Amino acid sequence: MKEIRKHKTLEEVLSNTKREGNCMIWQGGKHRQNYGMMRQRGEMRTVHSVVAELVYGERPTKYNGTRVTRTCGNRLCVSPEHVIIEESSKVKRRRYHCKNRKLTQEQVRDIRKRYAEGEWGIGTILAKEYGVSSYVLHATVSNRLYKEIPNEDE
């Protein structure tokens, strides 16, 4: 009977990548949200979390307050130089205080006004129209982003 190995080494994981600039892009299976996926110890996991566990020796989970992210922002990058483990609160704080804000005051007011009018599905429409993610749109509507811009009625 053939013995099944359930634990891959870092070299085995990285052998399924393609170098693009400084990034190592995963070439295997992908999740519908475009994260690299692989089977490790009999369970499906994101490849960047497997790489983080192999590099840092700890398995980040929401239960221990840590999560894996990449310094390059590319969801398919699994380069050990780019994969880092952060406390969950740091990830949220970094997202809320992103430096790449691109909405003007008029756009923020328009988004909040149109969202308040309550048309079903308007969030997705507005996000596409203004070229932002749905996360940025909802953070803008709920005043987690652009706090300094008051609504028109205020």
Give your account of this protein's structure.
This protein has 154 residues and is α+β, with helices and mostly antiparallel strands. The protein folds into two domains: 10-90, no CATH class; 98-154, no CATH class. 34% of the residues lie in helices and 17% in strands. The chain contains six helices and six strands, in the order αββββαββαααα. The chain has helices at residues 10-14, 47-56, 88-96, 105-116, 122-130, 134-141, and strands at 17-20, 23-26, 37-40, 43-46, 66-70, 83-87. The strands form three sheets. The protein has a two-stranded antiparallel ribbon with strand order 1-2. β1 and β2 form a beta hairpin. α4 (105-116) runs antiparallel to α5 (122-130) and α5 crosses α6. The chain is elongated and about 60 Å long.
Number of strands: 6
Average pLDDT = 79
**Percent of residues in beta strands:** 15-25%
How many domains? The number is 2
Give the structural class: alpha+beta
Uncertain regions spanning at least 5 consecutive residues: 90-100
Q: Give me the oligomer status.
A: single chain
> Which value, in Å, is the CA radius of gyration?
20 Å
Overall geometry comes to elongated
Helix content: 25-40%
Spatial strand arrangement across the major sheet: 1-2
Outline of the structure:
The chain is α+β, with helices and mostly antiparallel strands and 154 residues long. The chain is built from 6 helices and 6 strands, in the order H-E-E-E-E-H-E-E-H-H-H-H.
